[in-house]
């Protein structure tokens, strides 16, 4: 029960333009769940290398993100706000389950890779190039802006029956006292090819 309470209190740092207290990492996803017959079958494991979102002119190589020594999730360095990162304890993009990619909204006085993330709409295309030479294509299904205090780990990191993608950054107003944005922007997308 305590574990669930900690997860429900999760506050992500992705996209924050100033240092802030770290937050608990999402759980490491368990094994794959069988895909439903009407959804694309999952791709084999292959580390993602490049993210492209044409509508918002976002293009970034992907660094691998893990856990900090205090078991909080790493985020790309705020000093390089145009760098996105893949959370390596999530499925690789195209595998069954939710692949997690984090990026900054801004940092160091400049716009971040996910500065325009909130502009995405259902149907917009996202591609992720993979180390095996393949490209996983996703279509946006939903975009949420939620208060960090209402962040739902189950909705974002919970198992899915098909290959999905989550793009996460900060948004909303900036809390100067906490040195952090008050909200998260979360893009949900499903594999389409």
From TrEMBL:
InterPro entries: Sortase, Sortase_dom-sf, Sortase_F. One of its GO terms (molecular function) is hydrolase activity. It comes from Amycolatopsis taiwanensis. NCBIfam families: class_F_sortase. This is Class F sortase. Keywords: Hydrolase, Signal. Residues 1-22 form the signal peptide.
């Amino acid at each position: 029960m305590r574990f669930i309470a900690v997860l429900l209190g999760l506050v992500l740092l992705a996209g924050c333009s100033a240092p802030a207290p770290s937050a608990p990492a999402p759980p490491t996803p368990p094994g794959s769940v069988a895909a439903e017959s009407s959804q694309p079958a999952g791709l084999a494991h292959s580390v993602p290398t490049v993210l492209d979102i044409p509508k918002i002119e976002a293009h970034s190589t992907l660094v691998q993100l893990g856990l900090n020594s205090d078991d909080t999730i790493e985020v790309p360095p705020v000093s390089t706000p145009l760098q996105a990162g893949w959370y390596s304890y999530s499925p690789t993009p195209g595998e069954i389950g939710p692949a997690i990619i984090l990026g900054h909204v801004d940092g160091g006085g400049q716009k971040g890779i996910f500065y325009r993330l909130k502009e995405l709409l259902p149907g917009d295309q996202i591609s992720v190039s993979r180390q095996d030479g393949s490209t996983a294509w996703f279509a946006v299904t939903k975009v949420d802006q939620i208060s960090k205090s209402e962040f739902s780990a189950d909705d974002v990191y919970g198992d899915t029956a098909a290959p999905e993608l989550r793009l996460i950054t900060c948004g909303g107003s900036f809390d100067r006292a906490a040195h952090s944005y008050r909200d998260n922007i979360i893009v949900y997308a499903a594999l389409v090819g």
